[in-house]
Model the fold of this input.
Amino acid sequence: MSGTPSLMESLFQRTLDDLIKGLRLHTPTTTPSLSAFISKSLTEIRRELTSTTASTKSTALLKLLYLHSLHSISASFATFHVIELSSSPASKPLAYLAASLLFDSTTDVLLLLTNQLRKDLNSTITREVSLALNALSVIANQDLARDLTGDLFVLLNSSKVFLRKKAILCLIRVFDKYPDSVRVCFKRLVENLESRDEGVVSAVVGVFCEMAKVDPRAYLPLAPEFFRVLVESRNNWILIKVLKIFARLVPLEGRLGKKVVEPICEHLRRTGAKSLVFECVRTIFGCLSEYDVAVNVAMEKVREFLMDDDPNLRYLGLQALSTVAPKHLWAIQENKEFVIRALSDADVNIRFEALTLLMAMVCEDNVVEICRVLVTYALKSDPEFCNEILGSILSVCSKNYYEVVVDFDWYISLLGDMSRIVHCQKGEEIEDQLIDIGMRVRDVRSTLVRVSRQLLIDPALLGNPFVHRILCAAAWVSGEYVEFSKNPIELIEALLQPRTSLLPPLIRAVYIQSAFKVLAFCLHCFLFRKDVTFSFLLGSLSEEITTGSSDRLRNAPSGDSDGDGSYYPRSTLEETEYDIAGNGEAAGSSHVHTPLASSKSTKSTGDSIRHILNIVETTLGPLSGSNDVEILERVRNILGLVMMIKQEFLGTSSQEGDDNQGNNNNASKIINLMHEAFSEELGPVSISAQEKVPIPDGVVLKQDLEDLDLIYGDIKLPLSSSFSLVKRHSLENDSILTLENYRKDESETEGKPTALSEHRKRHGLYYLPLERKETSDDYPPANDPTVQDNINADTENLAKLTEQSLVFKKKANTKPRPVVVKLDDGDSRSILPKKQEPKDDLVSDAVRDVLRGNEAEPSSSSTAKEPDRASSKRGKEKALVDGSGDPLRIESSRSRDKSSRSKHHRQNKEKKDGSPETGKAKSSSRHGTRRSKNRAEGSANIAVQSPVIPDFLL
Amino acid sequence: MGIRFILMVNKQGQTRLAQYYEYMNLEERRALEGEIVRKCLARNEQQCSFVEHRTYKIVYRRYASLFFMVGVDNEENELAILEFIHLLVETMDRHFGNVCELDIMFHLEKAHFMLEEMVMNGCIVETSKANILSPIQLMDKASS
Done:
């Protein structure tokens, strides 16, 4: 470029200030003009970057940096210019800043910076070295780390503390990117721990704190050094980091805990700095919780935190409590008031912490109390927290098969109360638990039915979509355990009330199915157990006839009291009936009266049955044309039953007494069958049940579906049969049309089976029944018999278990805990916690090698590297550095050997053991083999090392 | 590493400075900043200064119209980070004289230089204000 334009440019170039002002003029509301302005500026910047004047370039870069970091503009086009600028002293700071902000490890021009970085690292100007270190700590990739390790090594001994600190911290990244550098630099890094300058120590401790996160075991041999820092240092930053290191080391070596607990308590008592106090508390709670003295001191501090006005301290106090909770429950119990008070704190985070804590202290004795408190808080708080409370109550109470719940009647009523809380969105969980408890806890079913009834008869609840799932469970429970119901007629009315149209189809189907079960139950009672039925049917009917049907639901609660006496669970019905009858008079006389009473009652029960049938018919009749398959099917079933009953049974009842006829005719047989089917108990199924099913011969699961064509041919036949099956129902025209289309599609795709997957996607709706059909038709019903066996075995086990575990826990004031059915193998055992294996980490392997005392290794590895370096352009420079570096290194290591620390004796001892192996490692020149060998050594090393450490420690 | 990123955000939620100590592309950064800003700005004075977000813990503090947010990993000492934020603000105060949003906007590179002197690889390297500021003052002298 000629001189003129660049002069013009530098004169009239927009500065950063101009750019910012321009950006501020274009407010976000005028978005198009803002983006236009940015893109215009970008074009300018691109042009200016190619300028020959360094100042123009750096201004452009400055502007670009601004746009990049605050407006997320990609600046990848400028990377080369950054490298250009890094050589000019004036713009060096900016260039390095830009490098650290713009570059990442994939930036291709990164290697071009190597030479410049090396030059600056060896510069006499402190500022340049520092800038280079800053940049290197951010951008170093494997190549840079490898090439510059030697230069960093020199800086680790720099007389300027300022640079030494930075060089030390730079190692974090260099070690990470190029693990072999550990062999060169580690020794010097450790030496810096003894520096008198706090900044340097702080930096070294910071590096170890980072490195110990990966594999703390490798750093156990350094424990004495850290211990010295812990005792001697008075700098809070350093102490916090050292505490973090010990928090990782102590769990690995028990005796270390005994050693450090005293100094930590000392710091805790002495210091006024809250950050250090908190770190000590956290360390004690985290890994020294078996030392009671320490825990007591820490608890004192935590209590101060909890009482503080500062929300930060309160939050941290609660957090500390929750870490210690599993081991020292008393700690929370002592501070119960604080925790409960924190439930109404202004800060959500504090409330959450308090909630977790409170849930941690739940046990059999206090669960009722705590839940009561929590539900009161839930009523008062905002929707989000309310649901959080409810969620944690649900999860804690259901943990481990409702371990903490003794009084299930209470728990069921609690679930009922919860579903009435306005903000409650935990429908799914409550639904699961209602059904689960119903299946597992036999004794609580009557309460369950009572609570369900209260939910079902409330028309208001139907309007709240969050409750629908709960209602679904309530409907299912009432249908399944209808024999506990006091008033089946009311139940049917509730299940079929008009507002059920607000329910989603699937839940409505459950409602209808439940109504079906209740109806079957009523009919069965009517036909076969007249002595029983009349008591409740009559009672409810007389009420119903007098009151209007709309009032019936509202009056229902009052029906509770008259129902009470006449209701008994099915199993005890026969006996109690006699008890009641024979209460005052002789048993014989009651028998005399029975025929009379029943003849009177059958008429009224006949009426009530007719009443039920009418309700069912009128409410469900319109649904027989429903679009939803689930509803349609169930409605058809129940209507079919109603029709049959009406024709065969009730039609004749007015003319003759049905006593004789009823038992013989067809309908009663069917009713009997149905009743038997419905009263068969459903039990919980183990999650692992599926695994127990043996895979039949010849079935290969996880097979590649390459032979889809073959299967496709098989599908054809069952498809048509399933289709005809659907057609039998009188569907509306449009749905038939879609099915017809579907068939057409099917025949079309027949020609090109590759389109099958696509087709499946489009018509996924139709596929499920189809495939099911396929398995049952074409293939032998492979798993069926075994599954059946399994279920039987399960239920047998279940029964055995329930008998065996009839051990009642003695409680002071409550009734014995009902049996909760569990499956013998544990429902959720299938998920085994994966044992975390220590990461196979190159850095820690290298560290281990160095710590084992093979001083020869670092120099040898650097000399091994020297040839490649010498061959490169910058060889001369490099050799110089290494030359000055090597003697120093050996000298320093020797002087350390002389120092009378017991550690070094050990190291020397180990050196002897290790030397043949390291020699071998040296001889293999390839990096890969060496690494793998080292890794093996490292793992063997753990075993050797761990018993040795404490000897010099204690 | 202890500190993962440092953000300075004004009351309107606009980022005024963003320094990351681990690599994230621009999209991720923008999303992360948005989420954090939304979370933190919704909180009031009576609430504590710690927010958990994704795998980070955000320690933040408000000075006048500017939020200083530091993302740390879960083990970092929150109170120490609060002290660090305070140190950062004091340092900027000393340099700019009652620092405000505009100072940071118009001298973004200086703010970055200060951070570079204070934090390396997510570790705090320098806590003396004089030491932090001396290279920047040198630079100012050279340019003027």
